[in-house]
Amino acid sequence: MASFPGLCKAVGPAEEENGDQDGSLQQMLKAIADERNRLNIRQEISGLGCFKDDRIVFWTWMFSTYFMEKWAPRQDDMLFYVRRKLSYVSADNTEGKKVEVEVYRRDSKKLPGLGDPDIDWEESVYLNLILQKLDYVVTCAVCTRSDAGDIHIHKKKCQEVFASPSKHAMDSKGEESKMSYPNIFFMIDNFEEVFRQMFLTKDKLDMNTKFTTSCCDRGPGGSDWSSALL
To answer: 218 is in which domain, residue-wise?
Structure first.
């Protein structure tokens, strides 16, 4: 079994007590970057990839360390697993796999075993990272652009949102959700209440009026890491 001495620095109870989730996230991202570099170097030197078992060891260690341990910094007690099930084999022996997302509580007796070959452990790490380790803020703004190109913001509203691998229908009040993975949605259940000041009447609209929405994730220390204009 492969080991990762340079990466296996546990995030101990002291971090939870100090509320140092930023440190846990930084360690996690560094471990992922180091693993990618290791694979790239191996590919360049030998022209070979990494053994499948070797990769499973790394990604199951990541999943266990940063999401399963009881003292791991977290937002909730849910765990998300990306499962790939064989759905068909074509005439040329090409396998087709159906992707499903399974959700369990951390203390569930039915958790998939670490190393389960049907679980995509790398994608499961990424999915839990996106859903649990990052904070997201959606910003809506009504602005106008002058002839000189300057932008003047008339109204702006920021709202914290949560990432989800499922979505709700926007044209009904039902609570039924559908799995959307690999697409990630950010739900705002009380949209009308939150953004009631953002409504515009026809007499306030002209060719220079813009309605923009962006969603950014917050990195360590509350800094914005990236922003997507919607």
So the answer is: 135-229
pLDDT in tens, 5-51: 333 333 344 344 444 566 788 889 999 999 888 888 876 676 555 55
In a domain, 6, yes or no: no
Write the secondary structure of 114-137 as one string of H (helix), E (strand) and C (coil): CCCCCECHHHHHHHHHHHHHCEEE
What is the per-residue DSSP string for 62-120? HHIIIIISTTS--SSSEEEEEEEEEEEE-TT--EEEEEEEEEEETT-TTPPPTT-TTB-
CB 182 within 8 A of CB 176: no
| Same-domain check for residues 180 and 103 | no
The pTM assigned to this predicted structure is 0.73
Residues 88 and 139 in one domain: no
Based on the domain organization, do 199 and 224 belong to the same domain? yes
